[in-house]
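Hey, I'm writing a tutorial for new members on how sequence and structure tokens pair up, and I'd like a real worked example in the thread rather than a made-up one. If someone can provide the structure for the chain below, I'll link this post from the tutorial.
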Amino acid sequence: MRAIVFISSVENPEEPITISQNAFTPVPDNEIVNDFDLIAVEAAIQLKESGDLDEVIVFGMGTELSHLQKCLAMGADRAVSTPCDRSQITPETIVETAITAFNDNPMSETLWMFGKLGVNFESHQTAQRLAVRLGIPCLGSVHTLQRHGKTWHITCESDNGIPCFHVSAPFVMTADLRLATPRFPSLPNIVRSRKKPVTEIQPVMAPPGLTLKTTHIEPAQEGRRTCQILNGSTGCQTLLTLLRP
């Protein structure tokens, strides 16, 4: 049994950014691993430490080597990297590249794990595309993940409570914030991570029939004013005027 965890690089929210022509201007060496992806990595490592998994693999498309090595230092066994330009990274390309890279073992032995959210891509979309391509279940916002024999007991976050599911591998899942707390790699593990294998593969384009084309029309326009600051001696009278039906 193995887990394949998808890793993405996002802009560091603690660093200043600039905006020009309605778009973020990228800053070199200003990226970090998406936090929700690290939660998925930690959850997979904990399952391996408890004996529920045999191998944890991290997969990154357009992700810096240092980000993959951080996951290896946390406890992942090996990494698969796809060096490419950001313009080549789409949900369809991520799915097709991952399927091509990990078709060596039976699908029944694989857990496909994503972070719930990403700054550059919404991972729910990528996870659902992967599940459809493989014809396996997809569970979003996973809150708890436990293995009982050949069945996995999973609870998910939802607007109507916390539903529980029983599912057999293989399946696709996205990690919620409460699933795990990522660990800080120790210095010995950081040194060992540099000796763990990192395989590079080329991106695989999606077949024409599976590619969805979208067109950017107009940037969002500022809506009408929805709040008002009331001060001064006339503030109370203005508030009563606004609240009076």
